[in-house]
Amino acid sequence: MTSYGDDATVREILTGTGDTWAVVGLSDNTARAAYGVAGVLQRYGKRVVPVHPKAETVLGEPGYASLAEIPFPVDVVDVFVNSALAGEVADQAVAAGAKAVWFQLGVVDEAAYARTRTAGLSMVMDRCPAIEIPRLG
């Protein structure tokens, strides 16, 4: 299996890239994986910014309908949309000035990975920060 984002990149994004994480696909549906992962990120000191068409407040943070609507800098864009939509989100992350993009488990777009890396951002694909962050210990 190809790895998109080595352990050093995972560590750098989780510990050194910054603490403001836009979570694309995060809604107030507690049954969705995005909700659980966002909660873990918060427990590890990250500010979670929900990005979802409904723009709901989730885990105490106001939501935005798109990355472009967030009125402050975002460090990492964590992508919980299916692979067919993820590339567009990665491009939006580049346009928004994010430092890194993280595609969740099962989200793979090799062309988007190449574009994002070429644009100078760090990127991890097909991994989960909620699994990786406790391993940093």
Compact description:
This protein has 137 residues and is α/β, with parallel strands linked by helices. Helices cover 34% and strands 15% of the residues.
How many individual β-strands? 5
SSE succession: HEHEEHEHEH
Determine the number of helices (DSSP H or I, runs of at least 4 residues). 5
Overall average pLDDT: 94
Determine the N-to-C terminus distance.
26 Å
> pLDDT under 50 segments (min length 5)?
none
Tell me, briefly, the overall form.
Answer: globular
- Across the major sheet, the strand order is 2-1-3-4-5
Q: Approximately what portion of the residues adopt beta-strand conformation? A: 15-25%
Biggest beta sheet summary: 5 strands, parallel
Which class of secondary structure composition applies to the elements? alpha/beta
Gyration radius, rounded: 13 Å
Helical percent range? 25-40%
Characterise this structure:
The protein is 34% helix and 15% strand. With 137 residues, it is an alpha/beta fold. It starts with 6 loop residues before the first helix and ends in a 5-residue tail after the last helix.
List the topology elements.
Layout: H1 7-15, E1 20-24, H2 33-43, E2 47-51, E3 76-79, H3 83-96, E4 100-103, H4 110-118, E5 122-124, H5 129-132
Parallel strand pairs: 1-2, 1-3, 3-4, 4-5
